[in-house]
Amino acid sequence: MASRTQSSGSAVSNGQCFQWLEGSSGPLAEARSLLTLVRVASINSVRDLIDVPPNIEEMLHIMGQHPEDTTAIEKVLSFRKRVREAFDQLVRRSGF
User: pTM to 2 decimals?
Assistant: First the structure.
């Protein structure tokens, strides 16, 4: 039997590091929460918090070359893009 310190696969491949997505309220709820930051931060700085920097996205795609990791990585990147889209819609509607 494997000890707690031994791993039967990466955290990415066994989905442990993405469990928060399953319980998430969704991109719109996150975008609404982030919109409250506009009171103390610029819209662009909040967008920077939402976006996955290009160098990180590139590294994730390299990791995604392993089939067991691809789905989880794409799920996270897709979620971040949907949060950004929802945030931009809220900003337009709010008149910022």
Answer: 0.72
**Nearest alpha-carbon partner for 72 in 26, 8, 18:** 18
Which residues contact residue 76 at a Cβ distance below 8 angstroms, ignoring those fewer than 6 apart?
18, 21, 60
DSSP per residue, 24-92: ---HHHHHHHHHGGGGTS-HHHHHHHHSPPHHHHHHHHHHTTSHHHHHHHHHHHHHHHHHHHHHHHHHH
Instruction: Give the side-chain half-sphere CA count within 13 A for 96.
Output: 17
Question: Which two three-digit tokens encode residue 26?
Answer: 């969704």
> Interior CA angle at 13 toward 8 and 17, to 5°?
100
pLDDT in tens, 35-62: 999 999 999 999 999 999 999 999 888 8
Domain-wise residue ranges, the chain: 24-94
